[in-house]
Amino acid sequence: MKFWQKYDGWIIFLLGVLICTSFIGLYPIYILDEARNAEAAREMLETGNFIVPFFNGQIRTDKPPLHYYFMIFGYKLFGVNAFGARFFSGVFGALTIFTTYWHLKEHQNRTLALIVAMVLLSALFFVQEFHLAVPDPYLIFFITLSLFSFYSYYRTKQRSWLLVFYGAIALGVLTKGPIALVLPGLIVPIFLIFRNEFNIGTILGLRPFLGILLILLIAGPWYVLVHQHTNGEWTRGFFIDHNLSRFGSEKEGHGGLFILTPLYVILGLLPFSVFIVQGFVAAWKARKENDFILFSFVVSAITIIFFSISSTKLPNYPMPSYSFVGILIGFYIYKMFLLGKKAKSMTVSLIFLLVIGIVLPIGGWIGLTIEKQLTVQRHVSLFLLFAPASAILGFYFYHTDRLKTAFMSIACGWILLAFSLFGIIYPVLTSQSPVSMVMNTVPTDAQFVAFKRFDSAFPINLERTLPVFDNIQELQRHIQAHPETYIITNTREQKDIEALEGVFHLILRQKALFENHETRVYTK
Fold first, then answer.
1. Which of 13, 176, 347, 425 has the most CB atoms lying inside 10 A of its own CB?
2. pLDDT tops 90 at residue 51
3. CB-based contact 183:318 (threshold 8 Å)
4. Which UniProt keywords apply (predicted)?
């Protein structure tokens, strides 16, 4: 017990590192966002241009650079590979969970802090985000840190917390842009309104001009430099196309109804999101006597509403609120522990969790059966049985009035499910991806070119940019001069495919996983 009390923070952090980095090097970088971010970092490292991001030699205006820098550090430590690209995403996941635990212990109590830490550590799709070489793990941490720092300043009036608040916002702006400023800028005033403290004195007490200056000093120089280096092209592409357009109009087919964002939150925090309604209700009832829970309620509600209004909707968008939604869920579970009795709503939620657990392996089996190239691998869906097994155990212990054992059974079951997903299921499935098939079929030191379109995972896995040809005549001339070259394409145009097959020899054809295009590889 004394050991836990002395080293509890370290234990939570190391447990977070273990779970958030589990098996990150066992399967290749394959999905589009990961591939483009990891490759942009690789090209920065290769060219020494740390100002302007590029993907396959073309300017990439999607995101600011901070996550690229951490990936480059990962490449320096571990090599240019999936582990190096993903490592610091996992570290920032662990930091997010540690930060949540520390502030809960500081402002509430150690028991509630531990419950919330377990809620987050067992949240499969939340943990999965920290397995990806994308900017979101960094943004999630910086927004989480900024909001907790604001609350710590609100309670203690220690100016050091104010510096952390604005510094974290600035680093968030360097990670994913203005959203790191917009969310705290909405949440803080609304919280103060709820507390009847929204007045000029309170606002000036937050030193907003100092904050603006600090944000400009930290984040401003890179934005100025990238604007100058690209004659404004990066600035226009990022702020207009990737910010205003994403909020105001559906981007890349990622739209949907208002309800989609709350559903993403429920999915992202499974298994314990089955108590999300009870969590919000319990927090609302406690809002007057517990301003920390009120603050968590405001963060959760504002973030979910904001991204529900946004025209573009993606599962990762509301994730900066997950620590705070987890606090609401944990607060409800904590109250049930204190009462030591069962509630009808908790029983219903556990039954719902059991239904979800049963659907998961069945859905996985059916999905892999439908995806013809994965039918042989469908047996891996049996590892999803950890979900219903943990739900059954949890329900049994709950029924026998062992609430804490029920909670830990569910949490540990879903952590084992995560280990199975990252350590077994993903490696098996991605072995059938086009990039894996090409890497196992064609010598990786061979010359490659692309025709019109190609799978974004090839540059990072081949560790080089690919010359892209847009017409068959230019391609023919290049192949005549370099006859050992391999041609990669995933064009959907039948006329292009016919033109290629009229001139070149098809050596490999592989459908993308769960997508409607396929990669073809040709030689002379």
1. 176
2. yes
3. no
4. Cell membrane, Glycosyltransferase, Membrane, Transferase, Transmembrane, Transmembrane helix
Exposure string (b/e) for 250-259, b if CB count within 10 Å is 16 or more? ebeeeebeee
pLDDT at 257: 82
Does the pTM surpass 0.85? The reply is: yes
Domain co-membership, 23 together with 140: yes
The 10s digit of each residue's pLDDT in 164-216 is: 999 999 999 999 999 999 999 999 999 999 999 999 999 999 999 999 999 99
pLDDT of residue 516: 83
- 361, pLDDT greater than 70: yes
Please give the average per-residue pLDDT across 39-65, as a whole number.
97
403 assigned to some structural domain? yes
Q: Please choose, from the candidates 152, 125, 122, the residue with its C-alpha nearest in 3D space to the C-alpha of residue 333.
A: 122
- Which of 71, 85, 75 lies closest to 24, judged by CA? 85
Question: pLDDT tens digits for 107-129?
Answer: 999 999 999 999 999 999 999 99
In a domain? residue 464: yes
Question: What total of structural domains would you count in the chain?
Answer: 3
Answer yes or no: is 265 within a domain: no
Q: What is the three-class DSSP state of 178?
A: coil
Domain residue limits at 423: 344-430
Q: What is the pLDDT of residue 341?
A: 72
The pLDDT value recorded for residue 167 is 98
| pLDDT attached to residue 235 | 94
Q: Are residues 406 and 422 in the same domain?
A: yes
Give CA–CA dist 149/165, Å, rounded: 5
Alpha-carbon distance 493 to 224, whole Å?
41
Looking at every residue in the chain, the average pLDDT score rounds to 95
Same domain? For 417 and 452 the reply is: no
> Which two three-digit tokens encode residue 203?
């606002």
Handedness of CA 132, 179, 318, 117 (dihedral sign): positive
Same domain, 39 and 96: yes
- Choose one of 397, 430, 463: the last residue of a domain: 430
CATH code, domain with 438: 3.40.190
Contact between 65 and 222 (Cβ < 8 Å): yes
Domain stops at, among 414, 430, 446: 430
C-beta of residue 476 within 8 angstroms of C-beta of residue 521: no
Residue 337 CB burial class (10 angstroms; 0-12, 13-18, ≥19): middle
Residue 194, class by beta-carbon neighbours within 10 Å (0-12 exposed, 13-18 middle, 19+ buried)? middle
* 404 plus 446 within the same structural domain: no
Q: Is residue 302 part of a domain?
A: no
364 and 465 belong to one structural domain: no
**For 276-296, what is the mean pLDDT?**
97
| CA–CA separation, 458 and 443 (whole Å) | 13
If asked whether residues 194 and 111 sit together in one domain, one would say yes
Lookup: tokens for 334: 């904590």
